[in-house]
Amino acid sequence: MARDHNLFTILRGGFPAELDAVAIETAGDAPLFYTWRDIERATAMLANLLDSLDLPAGARVAVQVDKSVESLLFYLAVLRAGYIYLPLNNAYKNDELAYFIGNAEPSVFVCAPKDFASLSRLAFAAGTTWVFSLGADRTGSLLERATRFADTHTPLRRSASDLAAILYTSGTTGRSKGAMLSHGNLVSNAETLKAYWGWRTPAEGGDVLIHALPIFHVHGLFVASHGALLAGAKMLWLDRFDPKKVIALLPRATVFMGVPTLYVRLLGEPGLTADVCRNMRLFISGSAPMLVETFDAFRERTGHTILERYGMSETVMLSSNPYRSEDGERRGGTVGFPLPGVALRIRDEKGGAAAPGEIGGIEVRGPNVFAGYWRMPEKTKDEFSDDGWFRTGDVGKVDSAGYVTIVGRSKDLIISGGYNVYPAEVEGSINDLPGVAESAVVGVPHPDFGECVVAVVVARPGVALDGAALLAMLKTRIANFKLPKALFVVPELPRNAMGKVQKNLLREQHAGLF
């Protein structure tokens, strides 16, 4: 019989023999403890609830809730029941959610209890059949309903090509794209990272992960959670990043994952010392470029060399600096080598192979690479080369030793605090505001966020615009991480002879703003 590729089944295979050991411990004032048996039973009850709804095969389950252990358990239950999970950033506003729900057409939508009144109307209007609520304090209709169901469940068998999740990633045209990730994509990446990063099972001494990331994107939901579950490793669970709480947990942990902004904030705390990191095995950074100064400062302060890696919503992880010294050194400013099973190439402007050290477009291929964009066959076709390589849109180089360095983003992406922001999407929201003729959005360096969003706006003739008022209106329409940190009203935008806005001039003009 062919292998069952259901991601839940694979992850459950990593659970320790002692199911009554603690799997997840929350880091609040009154910590909660979840055993591996609790995970097994709770996901079974939630999966049975989903099965009782008579959902169509391939049904999408959209979720926009605050981070909680229960939200992670529900994700696992969706996999277990064989449906497709659709995580949504809890910063998204109603206008953004309306697009995602309209495009994905989920059969089930789960939201926070405080948002149930407004979001249930939105979801029902879009054709969603079932809407549940789930609070970070374990309140809401989802858990209430699930308690009525049995705590045993046979996971649905899945093939490698069956969809497991859809992750929406913003597009340069302003229209978000749903990256379709299969069980095979996620299983292959989880198994590769378990070996490459040396995850330790309980029989090998047992890793302990500090989980301080959101769980609506690749880093927190897939890389961190899958890694710990597959290794049977305990998680110390924070509902949000708090540098003081993380430092207090470090002596009890062995693995930490964060975006560069989190490391900057850790370095801002005098309590971060080599002594509190004495039991740590590995610090991992990703989702945005890390400054070499941060990399060096962390090593000097703690004695630990951060492992930087590179991934995308469409591919999960692609490359990583080595964990084991025999595989090479960890080099700041690089994202290491392509992972085992992943092929990566650099193409020059003419589409030919770039020489070592030459900058060009990064293309990848492997079992981790997604099948395409949800309901966008033409966009999918455009993003793949004729010989089947995915064009990442990132610009980089590979040196003679094989280290990959990302030097830019051809798709004009801004990465602010680890979150992706596409200028065209923000510009579209600004241009819809009253009195606005046009706008240009750029990313500029920021000491905390790495990059931040800056908007330059031109008013319609005869209109006097107020930048603060525009930002206030914009705040109700887009997620906070997309919101410009500064907005300038100007008479006109700089353009070249062809009439194209010269964003490079805007970046230079505002480069020292922060």
Helix amount, in percent?
Answer: 25-40%
Low-confidence stretches: none
Main beta-sheet strand count, sense and barrel state: 9 strands, mixed
Q: Can you tell me the overall shape?
A: globular
Average pLDDT confidence is 94
Instruction: Please work out how many helical segments DSSP would assign.
Output: 15
Query: What strand line-up does the widest sheet have?
Result: 2-1-10-9-11-12-13-14-15
Number of strands: 25
Residue fraction in strands: 15-25%
Rg, alpha carbons: 23 Å
Structural class: alpha/beta
How would you describe the overall organization of this protein?
By secondary structure, this protein is of the alpha/beta class. The protein contains 15 helices and 25 strands. The chain has helices at 7-12, 36-52, 69-81, 94-104, 116-125, 141-146, 183-196, 218-231, 243-249, 260-267, 292-302, 377-383, 423-431, 467-475, 503-510, and strands at residues 22-26, 33-35, 60-64, 84-87, 108-111, 130-133, 163-169, 177-182, 208-211, 234-237, 255-258, 282-285, 307-312, 316-320, 337-338, 343-347, 360-365, 372-373, 390-398, 404-409, 414-416, 419-421, 436-446, 450-459, 486-489. The protein has a nine-stranded mixed sheet. Strand 12, helix 11 and strand 13 form a beta-alpha-beta unit.
